[in-house]
Amino acid sequence: MPQDPTERRVVVTGPPRRARRSFGYYRPRTEIDEQTTLGHTYVRSLMRIQLRTGLTVLAVLVLLVGPLPLVFAAAPDARRLEWAVLGFGLYPPLVLLARWYVRRAERNERDFVRLVEDR
Amino acid sequence: MNSGYAVPAVALVVLATILVGAFGLRISRTTSDFYVASRTVGPRLNAAAISGEYLSAASFLGIAGLVLVQGPDMLWYPVGYTAGYLVLLLFVAAPLRRSGAYTLPDFAEARLASQTVRRLAGAFVVGVGWLYLLPQLQGAGLTLTVLTGAPDWLGGVIVAVVVTVIVAAGGMRSITFVQAFQYWLKLTALLVPALFLVLAWQSDGAPSHAFDEPATFREQRVVRVDDTVDLRITAPLAVTVDGTVDGREHDGTEVRLPAGTHRIDGGTRLTFAEGAEVPAAGRGADDALTPSRAESREERPLYATYGLILATFLGTMGLPHVVVRYYTSPHGVAARRTTVAVLGLIGAFYLLPPVYGALGRLYAPELTLTGDADAAVLLLPGRMFGGVGGDLLGALVAGGAFAAFLSTASGLTMAVAGVITQDVLPSRGVRHFRLGTVLAMAVPLLASMLVGGLPVADAVGLAFAVSASSFCPLLVLGIWWRRLTPPGAAAGMLAGGGSAFLAVAATMAGYPGRGVWHALLAWPALWSVPVGFLTMILVSLTTPGRVPPGTAAVLARFHLPEELRTEVST
């Protein structure tokens, strides 16, 4: 090196750091990264709401599908109904339930990100 | 059936598969490409690939055959195969992708930090994968035999060789293109003939008694019974017999069979009058592709239907070839959206097999007696049209059927080979992966030749039941329950999956023949899934000291959106 390194000005490139909001203020994000008890509580809350969303949709599915074998067994003459429901009728509700769940789950995650990023 | 068109169609499918695979090979460079297509497969391509992989011989041929033989109750199979993806979406899809593991054993190790659980999961993956490969190879054999009269083993060998070459050469990147291509091929191969068949049905005056129970012959029909079968008749039936029934020789005489079970010897010709009820064939019929052995309705209590629903709804998430696909998504959100697209694609496909089943009841009801019910999809175009048009449509269906065997078999081979490479062979390089591929395919191919005559028909249903009672508890509890311990996971997988395996193995061996025990063992999911979950929970609760130390961090990784962990990724 030709010159004294302390005199050289070095430009470091890299991703810009998000501006700190205020000193002495702990964001939830840091708590999660550092795996403190408070951080675990945040993760737990996300898990709980996602699990609740999943269980809600599952309950709808069970209520929708569960009674059908009983109905078909109770009405053995309703063969055409069975063909129509099992052959065609159940698929649209399945897709709709899936789309509903995805929308809910993604919203949960967006809300959570907003919470911990404190935006 | 005229094989003049079918053989070129099958050859074309095989050739196109190799070409598309070669296209993938040109851009498959790294080990990561090989295993997970470098995790860059977008939702649409990945969804088509998952669907292409999932729609197997059982879906393409088996469902129509089952519906033809046993009526609309069997439509629970396609409903269950589809709804399984909804359950997977609700509890597994995004966390599984975020876990960053590649196979189910990887997941077990990442979550529980235990080599024992990892090996156990690997053993179940290989077992389920081989069970599922067996009917694919047999289906290929059946299709080629029906089309050309070729020997039974030839179709299986063709599929095995093509799949081994594609998987060993190109890995996941090339397989992704092959699978996506084959989904659309399969849809076309069922959709186009179905449109023509429905038009023909319309011009026939749209007879609607296909939906009535039981199916009846719409014209006088001579049926030649090739293999000895037991027929169950619910009402007395007049039939002209040329051959042996119940041990008595007849020579073109009209016989009035009372209600009950009758044994028809192979080679007998039966002539049914117009409007006669189609009898149900019991054991003895060769139904190699059907997800479960044909049983008449009175032997299928409500319990069996619920067992089937539970096994298919919960079993899908543990199928090794399905799970591997999720690691190719770029992130958790994409994994979810992929699953929704899969539901749409699979649901669209499953609208078609019932059409074939219903039309089969109208135009080819005697297939229930000849033991070729699984070939209904292949034979129906020729039966309804005849001539060149029927042959061409039949050839299209045959090509689609081969696409079904090829795609499912390559996905399964990929998954099994991944486990063998990582956990059995000494090193993990690409060369060892190729060796693993050969091993993964050789065992089921040998088995399909050795046990050709045995009722391996239950293999698909067994695979679902075993998966639902072993991997479903592991995944669901592993993702959502922080107190799961390695001993609990191992015990639960052994108790649930092991007992389901033994139960269906006992059924396949023919024990016990009838009654409540038979239903319990033939449809184990209803008790084996709770056994798996309960064992896992109870053993985990009794070993609280064995909760892995990093559990909280692992669960955070499973559930946190990717944008929150850019900085903590290690």
SSE diagram, text form:
The complex is a heterodimer of chains A (119) and B (570).
Chain A: H1 28-33, H2 37-65, H3 68-74, H4 79-89, H5 91-117
Helix pairs in contact in A: 2-5
Chain B: H1 3-26, H2 31-36, H3 43-54, H4 57-70, H5 76-91, H6 93-98, H7 104-112, H8 115-148, H9 152-203, E1 221-225, E2 229-233, E3 237-245, E4 248-257, E5 260-264, E6 268-272, E7 280-281, H10 302-315, H11 320-326, H12 332-350, H13 352-363, H14 367-370, H15 376-384, H16 387-423, H17 430-450, H18 459-480, H19 486-508, H20 515-522, H21 525-542, H22 551-559
Helix pairs in contact in B: 1-9, 1-16, 3-9, 3-12, 4-13, 4-16, 5-10, 5-12, 7-8, 7-18, 8-9, 8-16, 8-17, 8-18, 8-19, 9-13, 9-16, 9-17, 10-18, 11-16, 13-15, 15-16, 16-17, 18-19, 18-21, 19-20, 19-21
The name CATH uses for the topology of the largest domain in chain B is Sodium/glucose cotransporter
Mean pLDDT across every amino acid position of chain B: 80
Gyration radius from CA atoms of chain A, angstroms: 27 Å
Based on the structure given, which CATH architecture of the largest domain in chain B is correct? Up-down Bundle
Largest sheet of chain A: none
Helix content of chain A: 55-70%
User: Distance between termini of chain A?
Assistant: 46 Å
Number of strands of chain A: 0
Figure out the total of helices of chain B: 22
Main CATH class of the largest domain in chain B: Mainly Alpha
Structural class of chain B, by secondary structure, is alpha+beta
Helix content of chain B: 55-70%
Strand arrangement, largest sheet of chain B?
1-6-3-4
- Oligomer type: heterodimer
Total discrete domains of chain B: 2
Detail the poorly predicted runs of chain A.
19-25
Number of domains of chain A: 1
Task: Tell me the major beta sheet of chain B.
Answer: 4 strands, antiparallel
Note the run of SSEs of chain B as H and E.
Answer: HHHHHHHHHEEEEEEEHHHHHHHHHHHHH
Spans where pLDDT lies below 50 across 5 or more residues of chain B: 283-298, 453-457, 566-570
